[in-house]
Predict the 3D structure of the following.
Amino acid sequence: MPDGLLGVAWPFDPDQFFHPFGCSWPAAFACVAGYMTSSFSSGPLVARMGIGRILAVSCAMTGTGLIGYTLVPEWWMMVLLGIVAGLGAGAIDAGLNTYVAAHFGEGLMQWLHASYGIGVTLGPVIMTVALTP
């Protein structure tokens, strides 16, 4: 669900950090950098820590980043939380996809991605409803 939320939420309060709408790219870049870093290194991490620990730590990191977005008073903190959320999301996606592909059939993988599609569709709708007065 969180993948489409930041872009939906940004226009509702563009003056919070005194940055215009077009200046959201550092936060987006931070998310992508974190995501790619953890997804590229998910193989060795899963081999070392196991899929259960990786998913637990990654969910905690993603949740911390998302909750932090609502609490931080400074722009630079938002960018740092983007890295944290990206690191968590990348490890979840790569680790879970690899685990499901190796241990279950293609039917479960299709359900996994269908569930992602439902979540990524509903997330921005929920955010819009929550932010609309």
